[in-house]
Amino acid sequence: MTPTATVTTTLKANPEHPEPVEPCLFVIFGATGDLARRKIIPALWQLHTYGIDARGCVILGVSRDGATDDAAFRAIVREAIPPDDRSAGDLDAWTSTAAYYQPMATGDPGEFAALRTRIEEIEREHGLPGNRIFYLSLPPQAFPSTIAGLGAAGLNRSPGWTRIVIEKPFGRDLASAQELNRLVHQFFDESQVYRIDHYLGKETVQNLLVFRFANAMFESLWNRDHIESVEITVAEELGVEQRAGYYEQAGALRDMVQSHLTQLLALVAMEVPTAFQADAIREEKVKALRSIASVRLEDAVFGQYAAGRVHGEAVPGYREEPGVSPASMTETFVALRLCLDNWRWQGVPFYLRTGKRMARRLTEIRVRFRKAPVWMFRSVPDTTPQANTLVITLQPNEGFLLFFDVKAPGEPFRLQRLTLHFNYDEEFKTLPEAYQTLLLDLLRGDQTLFVHADEVETSWRVYAPLLDRHAPPHPYPAGSWGPAESGSVVPEREPREAAPRAHAGAGTETGAAA
Ligand code: BG6
Known about the structure:
Rossmann fold, Dihydrodipicolinate Reductase, domain 2, globular
């Protein structure tokens, strides 16, 4: 399905139309860590090369180790920029004028006072108006002391605006999320708080709003009368990588379901917001989450990958990964079924499935419509009624497919399944990276794509019955679609029958493996 009007205004494709944001100081806690190097610093560089920070955005890196002074941090910043992006602007000039470093070893009050002095010095030197962003790119156990340290040093207020960014996971259950929210709100107003879920920065996720609410055709079908089920899958080929320290404590339910999959569910299920504004959208998402009937343990299946092959390459099982206990009970796969108790969705199952070391990297939302109530083609040989299916794909391709029947040309009379498809890459060529989008919104002060305190708490409340399970996870071979037991709560992914004609590789009607 090719849109007739081609819009080309992605961030990347439109550097001639920079959107200057107010000058500010961007303070990154954990500035020498993995997330800062892979995502935050490259995104800031890209925004800089598009002229978005033309009026001045200065970075102050803060960390316990990894750098010693401004010069060492500037070298880290330079290295963090992917080689292909380095020539997009004057990287040396940027790092030497817009990147500073402040070590913080213990996080005691003296160090926060020194940080404040340094911030004020840099602001004076650059003539900045006191607008500040504090980005906590830190392990979750460091959130409370950093938030309290900022508050105690009076860094929660400034002559301009102050924003605080908190990465996921936000808490590890309802009680800890509530406690963290209480601490945050002791020093910061909710309007200053930006909780990150990077899925909200993905184009297709934002496109869900446009798809649903700009196209009345779909919205009029978007309810229990026409939809039979909704299936959300986030499958990764990667294993736990070097993150065992974090993942052993988290597992797939906390790492993926409570955040990313729940955000996707909320956008699919929510009612029409009154306006395209942060509060209106976040309010509707919370309402949708509140209507989720309590999730029961018997509606969930947990799995853990064993040794296997991914794309022919032998990989170890989760318990053999570095840093993982050989007796680990941590789940790397979750499948679950839940229902929303509201007029729109009553009786429509929502299936969620996510796992590491799955057969294929795939993120999609599969909306199955109800079949035709009366099948008038019953006299046609080899023809059975099939439902229309809409597959919104996020990874590896972003776009959507709509499966429907046509008459195959000629005789004998036959029905054939075809797809209409739309693919972002084909249509728009370049897409902004999620972190670019989120950082731009952060610089502009737009909270739409960030998670509200109520959302995060409601989400933990939904999954509370599953958090303290004791049964061991079911093993599944790496490179599969998860444990066979998951077939009892979510639809099985069957072997692929035929590639969709129009758009091979993006997804199939049955949800089949490639
Ligand atoms: C992160 C999780 O939030 O999302 C990781 O902590 C996961 O475990 C990652 O691999 C997946 O993100 P994406 O954008 O690659 O789907």
